Amino acid sequence: xxxxxxxxxxxxxxxxxxxxxxxxxxxxxxxxxxxxxxxxxxxxxxxxxxxxxxxxxxxxxxxxxxxxxxxxxxxxxxxxxxxxxxxxxxxxxxxxxxxxxxxxxxxxxxxxxxxxxxxxxxx
Amino acid sequence: xxxxxxxxxxxxxxxxxxxxxxxxxxxxxxxxxxxxxxxxxxxxxxxxxxxxxxxxxxxxxxxxxxxxxxxxxxxxxxxxxxxxxxxxxxxxxxxxxxxxxxxxxxxxxxxxxxxxxxxxxxxxxxxxxxxxxxxxxxxxxxxxxxxxxxxxxxxxxxxxxxxxxxxxxxxxxxxxxxxxxxxxxxxxxxxxxxxxxxxxxxxxxxxxxxxxxxxxxxxxxxxxxxxxxxxxxxxxxxxxxxxxxxxxxxxxxxxxxxxxxxxxxxxxxxxxxxxxxxxxxxxxxxxxxxxxxxxxxxxx
Lengths: 123, 300
Prior knowledge:
Helix content of chain B: 10-25%
Low-confidence stretches of chain A: 1-18
Structural class of chain A: alpha+beta
CATH architecture of chain A: Beta Barrel
Distance between the termini of chain B: 55 Å
Number of domains of chain A: 1
Number of helices of chain A: 2
Number of strands of chain B: 14
Number of helices of chain B: 2
CATH topology of chain A: Lipocalin
Low-confidence stretches of chain B: 7-17
Oligomer: heterodimer
Strand content of chain A: 35-45%
CATH superfamily of the largest domain in chain B: monomeric porin ompg
Structural class of chain B: mainly beta
Shape of chain A: elongated
Largest interface: A-B, 43 and 31 residues
């Protein structure tokens, strides 16, 4: 799959917090869906994420209004009609990587393999 | 032994919770406190007849088709007004995220019109708190109907009328928005010398969301000048109707006592009265096209 629906935040600026935690403030989450009429696609480049490599726990959070679309109207509908961003402004993911290989931090490709393993439906 | 293992287990759980909490804190602190601009105060760039605080975003083209039919009290012979319609066509475009322009043509007096709408303040919460949105609208209308009397010298400027409006709106809650619109209309030429060239009016508009896609809108303009002209009696325009949103379209269906769809016509030229039953059914159709895309394609 060349186009990945979800590309977690490790590939961006990652820096250590307290030695064991890695975090980013400009992680990326995007989604894409093809329809005959028009493609539905949005990017969010302001995802905040933290990974604790000692425990494998990870948390990431995105502001719904930071998803940006090609079409301004689509973005408005996304926020107003579907996501109700006024009521639910943030989206949070908490998880734990069961088997964490530290070698994944040395090269990005194994990381993608791992992500594909843990998020098979999203890849 | 058992007690010890329970203690260890408990402390492990606590540690685990602590670690998660810790990560949560880091994430929460790092999530940017962005300026949260209020969106969709109104669904369209018009409340009904008059402008709303909304504008086209950068690179978006709005094609508007508006009809006002004849009055309901014109009787069954005219199919309650639906036999006769007054059409306004408009092309409106967002140049930047604070400026939109538009041109239009209406059948009444064969009038061309053009406007510019400037967004001055935007209602927001978060990093910047702003209680209201404020925009300014300035428009000009050019009447191209042939002068009835060709004898005296007719000047081009006599065909022009100017409008200036300040729009102040607030989305009070998710489902309810209000707007106040102080307006000034200047007509270069009026029918008689006792008719006012300058008209001052205060407009008020509101939107009540009935469902995710349907809202009830109302709009009223109070005209401060005496409304009994030598040439005609005019009334304050009142419009009530619905906004129906479907994807890229917004349909506005309403009843109004105004025949004209542009400011210069519904402020100071509304000759219909709700009391007498001079109620026009009207609709606006807005279709938005994206001419310039917002975001550069990402390569994932």
